[in-house]
Amino acid sequence: MKKALLVIDVQNEYFDGKLPIEYPENSFENIIMAIDSANQKNIPVILIQHTSSDEYSFTFKKGSKEWEIHEDVLKRDYDIIIEKNLPGSFTGTQLEAYLKENNVENVAICGFMTHMCCDTTARQAMQLGFDVEFLDDATGTLDLSNYSGDISAEELHKAILIVQAMKFSDVISTEDWIRTLEL
Description:
The protein has 183 residues and is an alpha/beta fold. It has helices at residues 13-16, 27-40, 71-74, 95-101, 114-127, 153-168, 174-182, and strands at residues 3-8, 45-50, 80-84, 106-112, 131-140, 144-146, 149-151, 170-172. Helix 5 links the parallel strand 4 (106-112) and strand 5. The model has no long low-confidence stretch (mean pLDDT 96).
């Protein structure tokens, strides 16, 4: 079964911008480890880049330093960058066509944020017929607070992983995913 690694929104906004990733602390290191392992095994690496479609947005403004993909990701080999404007990486993009043209049947999800773009993309992939692996320690999130309540990054991350494992994805650590590449 041909695999691809989707590296979702690993952009400077999550490092130096208004949305600093808080949990898990080593998520970025695990993303880099997943990319390096995919490259060693000739697994396509697809970078997803979020662009705000709202001209008044203070985040992910095209052309800003925060919008740019993190330089440590760009130093590594990748197959394509796909720009998106919504949480789902398949919505309004060429991602599905690209995966099908390259005979990909399984996608591994890593990147930011666990509860938004990673979760949405994993659900879309499953609904489109792809097998999905969700790298639990190579996605990350932050504390949230809004009119509906408050939740810590750790609680939010854990809740999303539990929901993903119910139906949408095989939730797996980066090290375990890398071991499956050896088979």
